[in-house]
Amino acid sequence: KPHNHLTSSAPKIGRREVRGQEWGHMAFSKTVLKWRLIGEGYSSQLTIEDQRQIFGVAFRMWSEVTPLEFVEDTRSPLEDVDIRLGFGTGRHLGCNQKFDGTGREFAHAWFLGDIHFDDDEHFTAPNTGSGISLLKVAVHEIGHVLGLPHIYRTGSIMQPSYLPQESGFEMDWTDRKAIQHLYGGCSGRFNTVFDWIRKERTQHGEAVVRFNTYFMRDGWYWLYENRNNRTRYGDPVALQVGWHGIPTDGVDACVHVWNRKADTDAVYFFKGTQYWRYDNDNDRVFTVDPEGHHYPRPISEGFPGIPSPIDTVFYDRRDSHMYFFRGTNVYAFSVAANRLSRGFPRKITAVFPALTSGDHPGGNIDAAYFSYTHNAVFLFKDTRFWRVVGGRDRQRRPFQPRNGLMPHREVEEQWFDICNVHPSALKV
Amino acid sequence: EKLFHSRDRSDVKISYSHQAELVTDKNSAEIFLSRYGFVHPVNWGEVQFKETPGDPYNEDFAGEEDLLSWIQEGDSSVSRAETDSDAKVVSMTTESPAFISALREFQEMSGLPVTGLFDDATKAAMNTPRCGVPDKETGMDTADDPQDNVSSSAPEMDATD
Known about the structure:
The complex is a heterodimer of chains A (about 425) and B (about 160). By secondary structure, chain A is an alpha+beta fold. Chain A contains 8 helices and 26 strands. Chain A has a 5-stranded mixed β-sheet with strand order 2-1-3-5-4, covered by helices on one side. In chain A, strands 8, 9, 10, 11 and 12 form a 5-stranded antiparallel β-sheet that branches. In chain A, strand 23 and strand 24 form a beta hairpin. In chain A, helix 2 crosses helix 3. In chain B, helix 1 crosses helix 4. Helix content of chain B is about 35%, strand content about 0%. The interface between A and B is large, with 68 and 58 residues.
């Protein structure tokens, strides 16, 4: 009987580490959490599908800014479900705190993962005009279950009172840091990181060059908004959503080769022994490019002397060379001469020496990335990055070796909120 | 298209028979302040497990008046804590320092002018739709708002053109 489900949700050792019955503490010690809209708790106002879809988005919003992942579980025994959601009116779902009817209290959450919504309120799906946004309330209550208390700051999703939803509300910087204060930031390896540059014309007809930054991991990617210090709302998305025709399970590397003068402008994706050229204008890979090359194309054909597969590659506009990384070696490739530069391959440690003894990625680099935001090259490996000493650094400190590697830092200290979501949430 | 069976669609109309009691006077303000922990921090974890006698799931919606009639009839099945907490509220006089202090704290947290008076702005704030989780709970030092531990300023961008 429904009443029993609450008693069955008495603290189970191991199911959920409840550190004291109060907010402000990390509530879960595992990272993949199961949720369910309980059968006896459907709302009478929205279709069941809508209810589940809205909750799926709410959980995904938390997953985009925490190391936690959420998966809807409609099969396991209820006591194995970490977060249980349900609607009720008045005395409801065996809960001790009855609801007060239309107005005032619209929902509450309990430490052990129960979230109740007062079905006397007029809940609405996002962006459907008046009423109380079920999405916004669900994000708030899930915040409680994850351990957040009420936060009295304008703009916080954890304010106790409901503010009519401005269209497309999102979690702001401080709420993100509050939850990361409990669960930490997000870290992980990347297949590739790159800035995608494109020429556009403003409405006044003047030509401008714009870029966007992308992080790719396995079959999904994030657009990183450097000016906002976070990923784009709603990311990650599956690769095939934004990059048509590249391998859907991920790539080894991507590089954008362009020169304002030499009007070189080509985006290449590498995977295994093959590579693709991307057609920016038509937003998909070329099958045949303007030079008549068919794709996918063997790397050995397009870049003679470069072994495959490669670990990563970046393009240095200063010397118009592409630097391919494989194992502990680096290969400088002249774009103009279309051949390997003399004296290469060389050891990565020789071309990019460590400034601090021993603080060097060694080899098997995950990603090499020239950032237009930071005007610097970064080498990524695992959850760390090393910044390459640039021209300006050496003007200030001439003793630093050319292309020296500064001491490592954690990726999450410089690029924020690049968080996975559960694969089942990718479609949400 | 919402699924309806009655021609006048009354079966999908949200029945507004259950209107929440609004905070209209100082007594109801006291109940509000007590419920959300401004009088005494609420042990929210305990509330979840406090056994309410009887089988609350099967009874119909007990409106406030029904509940009050219970209390007035001295129905023993109403749990001690419930009457206790109401008793606690009733024990505060409207001008007691405890009431004024709780009111001021609510006004401060809500970003209202901290007058200590039950004025219209405070009444309106108390009637705004809100989450049922108390604002102040035992064991939670709201003074150290988790925000304090987090530098809210975004890191300096060393962006260059």
